[in-house]
User: Fold these one by one.
Assistant:
Number 1:
Amino acid sequence: MNRTPLRVAVVGHTNTGKTSLLRTLTRDDAFGEVSDRPATTRDVRGVALLAGDETIVELFDTPGLEDAPGVAQTLAQQPPDPDPVAAIERFLAGDHGHGRYEQEAKVLRQLLRSDAALYVIDAREPVRNKHREELRLLAACGRPVLPVLNFLDSAEADTAAWKTQLARLGLHLSADFDTVVYDAQAERQLFDKLAALVEPRRADLERLQRDRAQMRAHTIESACRLVAGLLADAGGARVRGAPDAPPEALATRLQDRVRQAEQRCVDALLGLFRFDMGAHAPPALPLHDGRWALDPFDPEALRRYGIRTGSAAAAGGMAGLAVDSMTGFASLGAAAAIGAGLGAAWSTARTFGQPWLDRARGYQALALDEATLALLAGRQLQLLRALLRRGHASTAPLAPNDGGNGWPSAAVRRATLRLRAMPECSSLNEVDGSAHAAPPLAPLTDALLAVVNASPMSSQPRSVSS
Amino acid sequence: MDTLNPILPANRVDRASPVADRSLAARQLADCIRLEEETQGHPAPTPDADAVAIRGGGDFWQRVVRRAAALPQAPTRRQQLAALRASLRAVTLLVLLLAAVSGAAVASTALAAHRPASLPLVLIAVVGINLLSLLLWLLLQLSGWRVGAGMQAGSSLHRAGAWLAARAAPGLHLDDIALRVVAGGAQGRWFAATLVHGAWLAFALSAFLTLAILLSLRAYALSWETTLLDAHALATWADTLSWAPALLGAPSTSHLPLIPVGDADAHRGWAAWLLVAVFAYGVVPRLLMLALSAAALWRAQARVGRDAQAPGYARLRARLLPDHRALGIVDAAPPASPPADAAPPVASTALRGPVAALSLEYDGDDRSLPTLADVRWQWLGSIDDVGALERMTTALRQRPPDQLAILLRATATPDRGLERSIAALAHSVEGRAAVLLLDGPRLQARGDDIAAQRLADWRALAMRAGARLGVTVAPPLDPATRSPTGSAP
């Protein structure tokens, strides 16, 4: 399918968030320039939205309309033309009011080259006559226009008034899309409504939507995997110290390792969602009262010990049986018994050898306690939710994150505690930063995913629109 | 790992080619790179390799493989992986060989240990443990599935492989990453299962062949012996054990005497039964399990380097298969004219005495006028369109007030349209106009920086428009109240 892409001009009054809309739609917080001032964008700049390799939509960021009434006056001074588009073309061919309306001319020219326009509205602003003039001017270009209401999350937004006024100008279809507070549902509706205006391109736009929805789902899954990895690392982290080492030093070592791992996870999450916010440093973990002296009778460790020892004994017994059979059972199964015993002993030594040896020699071993792990899980999930609701146009810092109360869910707790019994899967115990074995992260990832997908959007902390 | 899997065809294409390499070796390389980069926390910036991948086209996974192959560390990694695969292959061969030898040993010992050879004892020696361990393995699969009991086997295996590879190629400096890619996770688990089933299959086949050869070349007396059981129970056992051989088409043995003495036909019949039974109970179940495990291994290998959930891959997606592409500037702005307001803005003059007031783009009336000391307001009305503006300027020119205050919302954007209107109004009162910004607190609520910038913009605009009395905010902005950035308005 080698069709020309759908060309959409993003237009609107100055300083309504046109560039912000493009930043959020492209998930690119470096696109164009954004400020809360007029005429920040002075060029027409394009960006293509792709599905796979194919360009589906080309969006064009235009300078803001600043003086539509002035343009209307200039148009009125032209000889009358029954065709509104011809009148606009005549205006563009002229000197644009001695260059005074250069910016407006750029917008109109781009709209004539496009298939449709998104008219971005700052919903905090009241509807004025200049807005009506702008919409009349855009309508004269003969292209479908979809109003997009921005800054809806603000308390000052007056959506109802805007919709009434838009309807009076013949625009009965409009989209709600806050560029700062992201809502995947709103983005889908935006593309749906655009498709209603350019019906022949509906299939393309739906493909784009499917592609983007799939990408987002993958990203969320990856994010949960990252958090699960952090919890496996933190849960399995152990620090050992000589009997005379001060316990505070041990606790600090554990704290530092876990904090670095958390910072890496936060950075990776930001990178995954393509936010470049410099350093978002999570606050320190309250580890001083939260360290956990290693308990050799931790139920999870015992459970795992049972399974491991069972299989090791079975494997040893099997090997012994093979020896028995080679002697034609003259050994009467002795080899099998020895093998099973050896297997069980080996597994026991692997599980408890080091801890018991440590205890016997008076060494201290520390791991994270449950409350600290719960706090880590809660904090990462809260950050993840905040990122899911953050538009790429947002310039406000992330709200402080307290991690909520206790475990995000019982399933997360269960899966995390299970991973805590697997220190060999934690990369925090190795010098080179890679774990001996890949931790089985799937159950924890699924549990986290369930929490993220179940969280109601309305309960998200609102970030400030700058 | 297809090169190490005993039953899957080897397929090694390591070099870069115009067609994206989908082989397991190439995907293992990509997975190695991913784990390496995940350990670092982020994929390294590799513009050259990325460009190679994008030029190559194809879907995301093809690009991932291409990028990995183009990275500078790829040759070393490839060598490491090849060494590991070779050592695992060696482990496989060794295990198979040992199993085959012990199979032959078991079969010959069982036949020769005792004359006449006891049929049930030979059968138990040759297939009993095999079947028992198979059942145990199945039980472990069922019970230990969720907790990854197989991890144990996988990790032991991967240590054995690492040990061997380190001996074979000491210069390669193997790390855990290569091990995890080749023999970690589901792959390692199923490789271990395939190896175990393969070994038992080798054991059973070798025992079967040994039995066949020995029974063909030597004369053995075969019988169902018992001390405890009566003849009826023995017959029941013989019939029961004949169930599987009968399924494979072995002739019925019900006419054969259980304890043949000097009956060559009966011995031949029982020998054939023994061979079929060994095949049915020893070879066939292991063959089935081997096929299942190999299929699972194949599936696990098909997923290597294709894990959409893996953060390392997810972050590469934006680079290798971007969802948007900048088109650049398609209509450039004219070069910015030198700012006309080079002179510093005049200080705002305090309004006093009688002041005429009107509002621009603001539905005010005389009640919306702020209370200012020494000011007596005279309300002129609101202006929102060109016609009203023209009427107002005409009226102002006819009876110019001493001072004119133009009321605006402080949150409005100071655009050229407003500038033109303010200029027209200021001009009609010969410059004795002030811009009076209302709703200061709402502007301040958006942040102090924003409020300060906006105020500066308004001042510059008032200057350009020729409103010589400057800009006043009512109520005035309070620089002391700092609204914390980041909190909801």
Number 2:
Amino acid sequence: MLWLKLLRSFFKALRASEHPNQIAGGFALGFAAGLLPGWPLQVWIIVFLLLLLNVNLSLAFAGAACAAALAWLLDPAIEPLGRWLLTGVAGLRPLWTTLYNQPLWLLTRFNNTTMMGAMAVGLALVPAVFFGLRALTKRYQNWLRDISENWRIMKWLRASRVFGFFSRLAG
Amino acid sequence: MRIFRSSFLLVLAVFVSIGAAAFWVFRNGMVERMIERQLTTAFDAQSDIDDLSFNIFNMGAGFSHLSIGDKDQPMRNLVETGNARFHLELTPLLMRKVVIDEMSIEQIGVQTPRNSNNSAAILHAPTPGPAAEAPSPPPATAKSDSPSPSATAPATPNAWDKLRAQTPKIDLQALEQRVDVTGLVQQGGLGSVKYVNEIKESRTKMFKDWDDRLNKSNLEHDFESLLADIKRIDVAAIKDPKAAKDALEALKSARDKHEKVKSTFNGMNFDAQRDLATLKDTWQGLNQRVDDDVNAVKRLAKLSGINTRDAAQMVFGPAILQQFSTINGYLGRAKRIVSGDPADKKPPRRAGVNIQFPLEKPRPPDFLIRHIGVSGTLADQTTKISGDLRGVTTQPDAYGLPTTLQLRMISAARGVWKVNGEFDHRKTRDLDSLSFKGDNIDLGRIELQSDGNNPMPSAFHPRDADITLAMQLDQGKLRGEIALIAPKVEFDFGIAPAANATAEVVRKLFADIHDVRIEGQVGGTWDQPTLKLQSNVDTILSQRLGQIIQQKTAAVEQQIRQAIDAQILKEKAQVDVLIKGQQTALENRMKALAGNNAEVAKAVDKAGKELEKKSTQGAKDVGKKLEDQAKSKLKSLKF
């Protein structure tokens, strides 16, 4: 029932007339954090940014959940990608060696194959997610708001007991 | 749209909350409990830590009390400490590595008794009685002070017990007590008695077989039949050539038949003589079996297998093994604790692999305490302990140096002990060694192998002794050495000298022994240790023990032999009579057959000769008759 929760967060943000940057930024930051395994330094930085920046926190959680699920599914591809970046690209080795010898960078766990793969995927996907979602929100915000308020299925969803249960659960 | 949240204070509050939560976690003992759980898991025994503190500003930490239980002895602590202070290094912490440069521990104690509430005794109210005494770490001290061998032997608790059981034993008590020879003889199921019975059965069977064979052969009947056949040849009644021819045929038939019967008889006679000859060797193996029985009964009486050549091994072996076993136990524990061999586990999904890159300077291991300084007073309040433990780490290869231990224990009563240990678990080597050295020390009472009623000494007490005890485990191979030089030695005895004569002799035997020097080597493997022991008391002890044992053994052996003889002599005599009777019967029967055979042969010869004579005479008569007829014809032809 996670999708119901996500949908609810999304439409709630639309109804609140939040700025597309807030919506897309929250989701993209959450997406970036969710892709990364564990709690390395960069996740704490993202958490700090989420708290500092005026972005939608609900969508950040939604983005993190989506990204975590995606990363789990794509792990067989992400891990080899990270391994290739760390060991297969000769030009990057001096950079990794330099970073490896600086303790602070080790907090990012960049030398872990899954972490490196996830960071690479994140760097590629997060801007696309941010700009894509922002464009979609700008273009369809009014239309989506109408949908959320008038469409029968959305009314049915809002009226359903399951939706009510998860609404209560989400506060 | 504003870029930053209007309520940035909220962000601040969140971080303050996190800090407060961390403070609360440290304050309320959650970390204490977590560490206790980790230690309990690691050592497989109840572990407690009190008053854990942590200063985030200077990375200082400490605790007021730590006790780690001994899984082999639940009522004792493996180690117990008082106050401890240490500092975590910040830079390695950023690399998720715990490195402690200096750690000081006060009031360290080993093998301390645990209170009922699982807290240690030495730092709280001391428990009265022997259990409250802290065991002295030196391994060669009293047995009661050291952990039991079964408790300390780590990998193979029975290996040392087995080795101890294999050391020669002097069971003078068995010699001293009245040996129930009759009972032992009956209990043993004597081989010599069985042998007599077997002889009886085999001989009875042999004679029965002969009876059957003779009866089936019909030799007697055959001989009688032959005689009758020969008697039927009436030479005098032969009147014509046809009758002579018939008589010759009958005689030839009788001869052929006799040849066959004689051949059968000769074969049987040969076999009979051969079997009868074996009767001479009937009792040949009996003496050997009686000797075997005597030895077997001696074994039952625990009188044999006493090797007096290595008296030191017999007297001191078990006690020395006890000490080796103890130090081996410490070695095993140290090996378990410092061993940094992480188990290979398949990484879970999304765990990835950490790629290593060249380092500009060596990186510390995941966990390292570079130096632990320990100090304190043991529970007996007279032994002061101080020392250093260096290089405690979970990754010996990353650290690059072995873990080393130096301890010094000074006791007014027991002298000075130095303990040195080195535990090298780098991949290039797997070497653990631990040594104890004591100078001019009182070793206390060392238990010997005794059951309390044995006239042998139950303990010895070396004074002003120099002792070196070392154990090394190198790639699975065990090497241990002990050297003990004691100018003064006192022996304790389990029973009073007046109890019996042997006790008196044994007491005198050990009375004037001093300047004892014992050297022992343990070898083999962790699972199968071996022991060699030499002592300067070997010669004197072995000679004196040999005399005692020889006297006692000779007397008991004679007693056993008499009992065995008494049991088998009667049986043997009966079998002899039986064999003699059967032998005579068989011999008589064979003689009779031989007589029959001779008689038949004689009759055949006689009949043959008579027939020959008759045939010669007949031929002469016929010739004369023909001559007369011819002469008569010639006369008639004269003109």
